[in-house]
Amino acid sequence: MFSNYLIGLREGLEASLVVCILIAYLVKTGRRDALRPIWIGIGIAVAIAMGFGCALEFGSQELTFQAQEALGGSLSVVAVVLVTWMVFWMRRTARHLKSELHGKLDAALAMGTGALVATAFLAVGREGLETALFVWASVHAASDGTPRPLVGVALGLATAVLLGWLFYRGALRINLAKFFTWTGGMLVVVAAGVLAYGFHDLQEADWIPGINHLAFDISGAIPPDSWYGTLLKGVFNFQPDPTVVQITVWLLYLVPTLAIFLAPVGFASGKGKVKEPDDQGKQPSTASPA
């Protein structure tokens, strides 16, 4: 449940920040008349994301077992690729997100209502589709037969909306750079479990061999139906009897990805944190986008 709460919180807060930036900019510039198209675009994005999630869930139920496993495994891999790209992208661009959105909003205001709707839709829609896919993959990996994963996601999204509202009202100040670094690192751990389970699905679909070649089996020490087994499963997608392929994939993804993610910003691209002085010879601000 915690891992799904983290997904809802992390993804939902990004979308909430985007909405806050758009709304605050229009209010501060006296363009309240443009708020309605923005909300329409946001509403369309949320509806499409929810529809996408429903299509994944109910559409897959009509497939054969092997087809379900192949679909679940393939989409789990896609979801991990997307969420990995997202956490790295957010870490690198969070400081410039506000100015980037302001520039797009200025251009949309000059073009008219349709452009405003499209701007809000694109800004929020990407987050929504990524969230729907990763939540579906995570819930599919949990597969405990209870509504707890969905409850966790709902609580995470509700918390994100509340935090976004508090940011907008100026009632809450936190270091967003550190927040996204820590939650991003935890999300990488969650993604490693989803990826390993996705490869297990592909093995059950006979796409990858080795389904009976276990790395170890500690089901006797950590029963899957025990409270601690359930806790490990919910937080880390832990499996007491993983295959060799699962363990290999988990290690090959988690170790280098987490090391690069937690390295200083610019390490992966070879760029240092060099700042150009402004016209007065002062260093530019590095304030968070909230």
TrEMBL record:
**Disordered, as annotated region:** 271-290
Mind telling me which InterPro entries this protein's record contains? Answer: FTR1/Fip1/EfeU (IPR004923)
**Pfam families with a match to the protein in the record:** FTR1 (PF03239)
Locations listed in the record: Membrane
Molecular function terms in GO for this entry?
Answer: ferrous iron transmembrane transporter activity
The membrane-topology field of this record reads: Multi-pass membrane protein
Q: Which family does it belong to?
A: Belongs to the oxidase-dependent Fe transporter (OFeT) (TC 9.A.10.1) family.
UniProt-recorded name of the protein: Iron transporter
Q: Which organism is it from?
A: Streptomyces lucensis JCM 4490
